[in-house]
Amino acid sequence: MTAHASVLAGLIGSGIQASRTPALHEHEGDAQGLRYLYRLIDLDPLQLDVSALPQLLEAAERTGFTGLNITFPCKQAIIPLLDELSPEARGIGAVNTVVLRGGRRVGHNTDCLGFAEGFRRGLGDVARERVVQMGAGGAGAAVAHALLAEGVGTLVIFDVDARRAQSLADNLNQHFGAGRAHAGKDLPGALATAEGLVNTTPMGMAKLPGTPVPAELLRPALWVAEIVYFPLETQLLKDARALGCRTLDGGTMAVFQAVKAFELFSGNEANAQRMLEHFRRLGA
């Protein structure tokens, strides 16, 4: 990986004005003496949707972008537009980081590593025989891979689109062995026997308030992990903490996926501790 003296990066997604990713990347770039610019390409104010991805990628290449982060709702739609996928991105079927180099577009997935690192740090010692996951989209696919790699026995996946949940379960069973993942049908029943709950849906974000799980289905013995980080305390985490559940907010995943993306864009090693401290200073 060759180091760059300057980096121009961006984030493509919907409703991303509050994203802390630009600040995380630029602060670490400054600390390393790099000229590091990170721009938001928010589909909402531009009145665009995923159909604009081909033009946006082409524009980024022509204007000299080093790479792009990709977030909701583009993590799967971007794949046909890329020249190459890392083994992680191919296995997960979702991309959140694209490196533009030498006329080629290479897709990576740093969400999986990011969630796994946060999980080990925040919930490393929890029981994990049965876990319920809300959401089977791009982030959900990465988190599910991380959970099974971190030793979850059985993962029960719920999604508003039942076919998407089934398709993710099939992918996971191919990778990790038959029966490790199931598409869920009965949420109260699944939660009653689970040790943990993970939300990978955008529900709980500032622009999508609410919770994917009714508070009355939570119980004190359940640990609850969240990938939404704006706000850091979602309604789901608030409900869980009120019961005394162990919780993990979305901050560590946000930071550790950014650490890896920074390294892919810049060619330099990132100081993870410095990025974590900076993220916490940015406030909830």
Explain what this protein looks like in three dimensions.
The protein is an alpha/beta fold and 284 residues long. The chain has 2 domains: 6-109 and 252-281, Rossmann fold; 127-245, NAD(P)-binding Rossmann-like Domain (Rossmann fold, 3-Layer(aba) Sandwich). It has 11 helices and 12 strands. The protein has a 6-stranded mixed beta sheet with strand order 2-1-3-5-6-4. α1 links the parallel β1 (6-13) and β2 (35-42).
What fold name stands as the CATH topology of the largest domain? Rossmann fold
Look at the structure and name the CATH superfamily of the largest domain.
Answer: Leucine Dehydrogenase, chain A, domain 1
Q: Taking strands numbered 1, 2, ... along the chain, how are they ordered across the largest sheet? A: 2-1-3-5-6-4
Separation of the first and last Cα atoms = 34 Å
Helix/strand/pairing category: alpha/beta
Biggest sheet descriptor: 6 strands, mixed
- CATH level 1 class label of the largest domain: Alpha Beta
Give the overall average pLDDT: 96
Contiguous uncertain segments of 5+ residues: none
Helix content: 25-40%
* Discrete helix count: 11
Which word captures the global form?
globular
Q: How big a fraction of the residues is strand?
A: 15-25%
Global Rg = 18 Å
Provide the domain count. 2
Which oligomerization state do the chains in this entry correspond to?
single chain
| SSE pattern, N- to C-terminal | EHEHHEEHEEHEHEHEHEEHEHH
Number of strands: 12
- The appropriate CATH architecture of the largest domain is 3-Layer(aba) Sandwich
